[in-house]
Specification:
about 130 residues; eight-stranded antiparallel β-sheet
């Protein structure tokens, strides 16, 4: 089922709050898909998903290369239950944004994320939520 972020049922919100990993899909500059496993957080109120990573990673470089048109999708699955968050993506090294990402990550996964010197946050402004069996 496709939904906007403002109408997420309790079961979907609870599923997204579990300390599970997901896949992040971005587009390489040549248009091919890059899919990688990540940990992420989702702020349903703001409609914002966050992934912390190193600035030098392929996923961060893909988002940067996409500029204002960069898009990404996060998919968290458990058997035949899944939720996908899709939207516009950006990369930020802003200390306030990083602090928010680290705080939420630590709360969700019960430990802080790795903290390399080139830590950035990929933010996805979620425009569409797809789910099954939730």
């Amino acid at each position: 089922m496709t939904r906007t972020t403002g109408e997420l049922p309790t079961a979907v919100r609870a599923f997204l709050a579990r300390d599970a990993a997901a896949t992040l899909t971005t587009l390489r500059p040549d248009g091919t898909l890059h899919v990688t496993a990540v940990r992420f957080t989702y702020d349903a109120t703001a409609g914002l998903a966050r992934v912390t990573t190193r600035a030098s990673t392929r996923k961060a470089r893909n988002v940067l290369a996409g500029g204002a048109f960069a898009r990404a999708a996060l998919c968290q699955a458990d058997g035949f239950r899944w939720v996908t968050l899709e939207g516009r993506a950006s990369v930020s090294a802003d200390s306030t944004r990083l602090a928010a990402a680290v705080r939420r990550y630590t709360a969700r996964y019960h430990a802080p994320p790795p903290a390399p010197p080139d830590l950035v946050v990929i933010e996805i402004d979620v425009e569409r939520v797809l789910s099954l069996n939730l």
